[in-house]
Write a structure and sequence with these properties.
The complex is a heterodimer of chains A (225) and B (397).
Chain A lengths: L3 E14 L2 E14 L2 E6 L6 H8 L7 E6 L2 E2 L5 H11 E4 L11 H12 L3 H14 L15 H13 L5 E5 L7 H17 L3 E5 L3 H5 L3 E6 L2 E2 L2
Parallel strand pairs in A: 3-8, 3-9, 6-7, 7-8
Antiparallel strand pairs in A: 1-2, 1-4, 4-5, 9-10
Helix pairs in contact in A: 3-4, 3-5, 5-6
Chain B lengths: L1 H36 L2 E9 L3 E5 L5 E6 L5 E3 L5 H8 L5 E15 L4 E9 L1 H7 L2 H4 E4 L1 H6 L3 E5 H7 L6 E5 L4 E10 L4 H4 L2 E5 H8 L7 E6 L5 H12 L1 E5 H4 L1 H39 L1 H9 L4 H35 L2 E5 L3 E4 L6 H27 L3 H8 L1
Parallel strand pairs in B: 6-11, 8-10
Antiparallel strand pairs in B: 1-4, 1-12, 1-13, 2-3, 5-6, 5-9, 5-12, 7-10, 8-11, 9-10, 14-15
Helix pairs in contact in B: 1-11, 1-13, 1-14, 11-12, 11-14, 12-15, 13-14
The chains are: A alpha/beta (225), B alpha+beta (397).
């Protein structure tokens, strides 16, 4: 049975671009369920990434409500939001955003260390996750010495290490070739099933979007389909 | 960053070396003058307090009293030395009291006459109130004690008159002359004293000056000479005699040393300040370069304080390395400076740089470096913690 892990109610958000006020979201509402991948598609500038940042608690909505695990995040202070982001939400970006001075395993272990886990234990678990994602040979490689597909898998491993309930993937395949895109998508699909994760996938790739469990189409700050 | 670290090491070590050197000379000078002229000198008695000003408030209450020593009239010397000595013995901070009768005289040898300043003393008292015992180069206290006609002469006096221990010499005063025997030759290090001063017994000094009573001064030593100023003020108030502490007596030289120390401290602190500015620049650039990484860390759950801590920790590492290196080079530098030959004959005597090994120099150097480095790392750290992750990620994409 599908349980709505994430409930978004009438979300609006605007920001200043130069002197112009941009209304990025104009009242977005939807649910995302555990064990499912929900894709969000739409043209550039339609508000997909803004929605992701709001859901990832990196930004503040103008109005509306975000409910995660039946808890409204509007009641949380900054420290509680940061803690929630660390423990319950995993971020995957288009450009993977790894720290290049750290090795693959160190990048993956970072959120766990921040959570308070012992460094050695965190690194050991990072190794296990990287092994599962087929990167056992690249554990000690610096992030910038990995291929694009490998870097994205390291980013997925980092998003998973604290066993989150929600994965926010902002165009994770946008910078990858077809073969690597398939690998990353299959991985997300498998993880959402196996670990009962709610995955929100922003993509431009219509084919990938249609393979997801649910499908949301956005345009001009609104959900159109 | 390496240049900033070198700057901090250099600044700390240079601070330590310059302070050790300037305070070394000052400490040596103070030790010399305390050992020679005592911590406090009591001389003339006030005859009339013309310089006294009483400030009375409107309601008739006593506000304060100001006594100007300059406007008072004095009677030459201490009038009742016995009473003064008894009164002084009640001051617990005083550990030595020596009555000294000063007069001008001439020493005569077969070949020449030489003007000197004679100090009549009781050697047992004077040994406690001065460092005369340690200042003796030749002869001994026992020689002086065993011979009523004994004389201690400054080493420069001895050189000029070619006198040695046990030589005979005539002393000619205002009212008489005596033949004395050289009991010892001393060196204070203060050239003005070494070429003019002689010590004879108090009775002999009074005899050659023809003054059986009065006219003497008191030289006092203290357990803690740093308190001399306040104790001198109390004594003057209580005994009605002109009382001068060593700080007041040597004010000119002490001010010179103070000016030198402050000047060198400011100069060297500038090196630390510049290193701090260099470090600030490095951190400021680092924050700009690492904005993306900061955004990543924020997105995976790091709090603003965690981001600040990363930069502050880096600053701390540089500071600790700078302190360890700076103190090490400071110790080595201070030792090397102390080995440099330097002949000084004047306000004191030395043949090499005098240094003062004082923990406070190290503490000050570390404190100043800590302040500069803390500011230099705190401002960029604060800026880094205020990075808005969504904005940075949006702009990066």
């Amino acid at each position: 049975m599908n349980v709505p892990l994430l409930q978004v109610r009438n979300l609006t958000h605007s920001f200043l671009e130069g002197e112009e006020k941009v209304h990025a979201l104009r009242g977005v509402s939807f649910n995302a369920n555990q064990g499912e991948i929900t894709s969000i598609i739409g043209p550039s500038g339609c508000g997909k990434s803004t929605l992701m940042y709001l859901l990832g608690l990196l930004d503040q909505p103008d109005s509306g409500e975000i409910i995660i695990n039946n808890n409204s995040i509007s009641k949380l202070n900054e420290i509680q939001k940061t803690q929630l982001r660390n423990e319950k939400i995993g971020f995957i970006f288009q450009f993977h955003f790894l720290i290049k001075e750290l090795s693959a395993r160190e990048n993956v272990a970072l959120p766990a260390i921040k959570k308070g886990e012992d460094s050695e234990d965190a690194l050991e678990r990072a190794d296990q996750i990287l092994n599962q994602l087929g990167l056992s040979e690249k554990l000690d490689r610096f992030a910038n010495k990995l291929s694009g597909g490998e870097q994205q898998r390291v980013a997925i491993a980092r998003a998973l290490i604290n066993s989150p309930s929600l994965i926010l993937a902002d165009e994770p395949t946008g910078n990858l070739d077809t073969a690597n895109s398939e690998i990353v998508f299959d991985l997300l699909q498998r993880l959402s099933r196996e670990q009962n994760l709610a995955v929100l996938l922003v993509t431009h790739n219509n084919q990938l979007a249609r393979r997801c469990d649910r499908f949301i189409s956005m345009n001009d700050g609104l959900i159109v389909d | 960053m390496t240049m900033s670290l070198i700057g901090i090491i250099f600044g700390i070590s240079f601070f330590i070396v310059t302070q050790a050197q300037t305070s070394g000379f000052q400490t040596y000078f103070i030790r010399t003058i305390l050992g020679t002229n005592g911590a406090i000198r009591i001389s003339d008695r006030f005859q009339d307090m013309k310089g006294t000003v009483n400030k009375i408030s409107k309601d008739g209450q006593f506000k304060f009293q100001f006594k100007s020593r300059e406007d008072a009239e004095y009677i030459d010397g201490v009038d009742y030395p016995g009473k003064i000595r008894n009164a002084l013995s009640e001051f617990p901070s005083i550990n030595g009291i020596s009555e000294v009768f000063e007069c001008n005289a001439a020493l005569q040898t077969k070949s020449r006459n030489y003007s000197v300043q004679a100090h009549g003393i009781r050697i047992n008292d004077h040994m406690i109130a001065s460092e005369i015992e340690n200042q003796l180069m030749h002869g001994s206290i026992e020689n002086f004690l065993s011979d009523e006609m004994g004389i201690f002469i400054g080493n420069r006096v001895a050189e000029r008159l070619n006198l040695h221990v046990n030589d005979r010499v005539n002393i000619v005063g205002k009212k008489g002359n005596f033949q004395l025997r050289v009991s010892g030759i001393f060196e204070t290090g203060v050239s003005e004293i070494d070429k003019k001063r002689i010590y004879i017994s108090l009775a002999t000094a009074r005899s050659i000056e023809g003054k059986r009573f009065g006219g003497s001064v008191f030289q006092l030593s203290m357990f803690n000479p740093d308190n001399a100023r306040s104790v001198a003020s109390q004594i003057q108030q209580t005994l009605g005699h002109r009382t001068v502490s060593w700080q007041e007596r040597e004010k000119v030289w002490l001010d010179v040393f103070k000016a030198l120390r402050i000047s060198s401290a400011i100069t060297v602190s500038t090196i630390l300040l510049l290193s701090g500015l260099g470090m600030f620049n490095v951190f400021a650039i680092m924050v700009i370069e690492k904005t993306r990484d900061v955004a990543i860390l924020r997105s995976i759950g790091f709090e603003p304080k965690d981001i600040s801590a990363i930069f502050l920790w880096q600053g701390m590492i540089v500071l600790i390395a700078g302190i360890v290196g700076g103190v090490l080079f400071g110790v080595i530098g201070t030792y090397l400076v102390s080995q440099i030959p330097l002949e000084i004959r004047g306000i004191f005597t030395t043949d090499s740089f005098v240094v003062n090994w004082d923990i406070s120099h190290y503490i000050w150097a570390i404190l100043i470096a800590t302040i500069f480095v803390s500011i230099a790392s705190w401002i960029p750290a604060r800026r880094a913690s205020k990075v808005e992750p969504a904005k940075i990620i949006r702009e990066t994409i």
